[in-house]
Amino acid sequence: MIAENLVRLLERIDKKCKQVGRNPEEIRLIAVSKYFGTDAILEANKAGVKDFGENRAQELMLKYDKIGDTVVWHFIGTLQKNKVKYAVKAAEYIHSVDSIELLEEINKRASSLNKVQKILLEVKTSYEESKSGLTNEEEIFGIAEQAKHYSNVNLVGLMTIAPLTDDENLIRKSFRELRLLKDKMNKSGINITELSMGMTSDFEIAIEEGSTMLRIGSAIFGERNYSKDWRQV
Ligand SMILES: *Cc1c(COP(=O)(O)O)cnc(C)c1O
After folding, report:
1. Cα(141) to centroid of ligand 1, in Å?
2. Bigger pLDDT: 130 or 168?
3. In angstroms, what CA-CA distances link 105 with 151, 179, 204?
4. Measured between alpha carbons, how far is 3 from 166 in angstroms, rounded to an integer?
5. Beta strand pairing call for 28-32 and 117-122
6. Ligand 1: which residue has its CA nearest to atom 13?
7. Could you tell me if residue 86 is inside a domain?
8. Ordered DSSP codes for 50-85
9. Which residue among 32, 60, 76, 97 is best mutated to probe the pocket of ligand 1, counting the most ligand atoms within 8 A of its Cβ?
């Protein structure tokens, strides 16, 4: 089931890349495995997926303890300061940095593990009340500048979640805003390459708008069962 879903998904990614003249090799597919067990992760890994995304620190730790570094872990959820140590231990990338305090804590924890933590800044491009992420451009530039002074963090890009809507224009606007912000940052001497954007419902638009990291869950693993206890991994 997972292997078949993956074949279908990769076909769609390839097709969209061809349409817009992009090389699919420059896009990293992150399988978002939240609510799915380690059996599903290993099955996807066997089918060729190397990158996995989790949005809760404890769930990530449980899976990391079982699977370890044989796959590349991405932390993509809201991160509390007291959970930073777990995310830093397991994740090669933390996509959801949204404050200077979090940046500082990540640097501290990464330093004690002798690690350079790759991070992305989460930007709120959707103007929805409930979504997390940075909105103030001055603050975004400020955090990016501060990151340059920390030797145990490496800022590689920006992440966003598009609004939950059927209106393709609004979704595109959100992804485009992130791309333009990245360009602006690069012009001002902050060198970043990654755009983490695009999920199951909107990844084709994200590819058109320059995504380099797709975070896709249900198209690979199927619908999530939110009533299932994630500790039974
Ligand atoms: C769950 C989640 C995804 C994946 O969502 P799907 O719709 O299942 O592809 C992507 N990004 C974040 C931040 C998530 O929490």
Report:
1. 26
2. 168
3. 13, 27, 35
4. 28
5. unpaired
6. 76
7. yes
8. -EEEES-HHHHHHHHHHHGGGSEEEE-S---GGGHH
9. 32
d(CA 140, CA 232): 38
| Tens digit of each residue's pLDDT (9 = 90 or more) over 26-61 | 999 999 999 999 999 999 999 999 999 999 999 999
At 223, give phi and psi (nearest 5°): -65, 140
The answer to whether residue 76 is domain-embedded is yes
Residue nearest to atom 7 of ligand 1 (CA): 200
- 228 belongs to a structural domain: no
For 77-101, the pLDDT digits (tens) are 999 999 999 999 999 999 999 999 9
Q: Which domain holds residue 62?
A: 2-218
Pocket lining for ligand 1, CB < 6 angstroms: 32, 34, 55, 76-77, 161, 199-201, 215-218
| Structural domains counted in the chain | 1
Residue 26 lies in a domain: yes
The CATH number of the domain holding residue 132 is 3.20.20.10
